[in-house]
Amino acid sequence: MQHQGSRVSFFKKMKERMFRSSSKLDQGLEALVEEGSDDTAPDPAPPAPTEPTPTPPEPTPEPARPAPPAETPGLLGRLMGRDTGPRRVLDDEMLEDLEDLLIQADMGVETAARVAANLAEGRFGRRLSVAEIKSALAQEIARIMEGVARPMPLYPARPQVVLVVGVNGAGKTTTIGKLASQFRAAGKSVIIAAGDTFRAAAVEQLQVWGERAGVPVMTAPEGSDPASLAHEALTRARSEGADLLMIDTAGRLQNRADLMEELAKILRVLRKLDPEAPHNTLLILDATTGQNALNQVEIFRKLADVSGLVMTKLDGTARGGGLVALADRFGLPIHAIGVGEQIDDLQAFDPEEFAAALVGTDSDNLGDQA
After folding, report:
1. What are the distances in angstroms from CA 250 to CA 52, 162, 175, 217?
2. pTM over 0.85
3. Chain-centre distance of CA 277, in angstroms?
4. Percentage with pLDDT > 70 across the chain
5. Helices (H), 36-166
6. What's the Cα-to-Cα distance from 14 to each of 22, 101, 171, rounded to whole Å?
7. Judging by DSSP bridges, how do beta strands 334-338 and 346-348 pair with one another?
8. Burial zone of 142 (CB within 10 Å; 0-12 exposed, 13-18 middle, 19+ buried)
9. b/e map of 148-182 (b: 16 or more CB within 10 Å)?
10. Which pairing describes strands 280-286 and 88-89: parallel, antiparallel, or unpaired?
């Protein structure tokens, strides 16, 4: 289980590393509100009491009434931004502008329209500040992501076979290394099979991770049959009573027919030894590919029965909204997200923290209704 301190530090790191994404949304929302603001000047203050005109003395003059308190926001109001700054009426024009902004953040046309429509419920016609829109937007994003935030399930069956798929460069090998290290640290015995036998760099990278984590990495000569390695690895994992077997695969989408046959052969070989294998098929996605990630999910769901997603390189994109579109369209479990190269830069996916980092607000305030 993730410790609170680790979770907090990861969230802080995610916010820092997703600054390009959140600052882009920040700037866009601020411009959106200011552009159509109907209150560039502050609301008029109550009239100040006028000096009395000198008059003959009266027997008993009425005491002067205290001036009403000035309507200046307190410290909390200023911090929240609820009572300061421009406001804009949430109307059809503003909703269109908001949709465009979400599409630019890579949320996709359908998801952006759905998010904007849901955000308008109960708020249409109201004058909203940037802070209120950000809070409402983060709540809506978190609501979409809530149903897909699930850790990778662990089963009593041993070995649990985890097949890892994705295009070359998406971060498969580093994700396998990080997951293996984390499982090993949690007391699980792990074996890695370097099944991308066509890329020597991938094999070497896994070997480095294996040495670091104390996890054996099985390899085969370059260009050899990955299915044979998978068979050998599962046989060894069963004989040694390993908890987990993680199998890397190639991701050469330009040769899709070859890749499909290669994956199909790996599945056939595994299922001869264990009809339930693989127990998990993880698709690793690179956040910097934006909307192309949607196409990759479509392809790999046909090539292999994808059971869950891991999104890497969220620190390298200004358009983290692609993950929202993935959740909205496919509903596949999102097991983890990565924001860097270190082992603790891959963590379980938390919808509220992700939404807050994406929009640029505080996750502790997502319960406040705008």
Report:
1. 88, 15, 14, 16
2. no
3. 28
4. 76
5. 75-80, 92-104, 109-120, 130-146
6. 11, 21, 17
7. antiparallel
8. buried
9. bbeebeeeeebbbbbbbbbbbebbbbbbbbbbbbb
10. unpaired
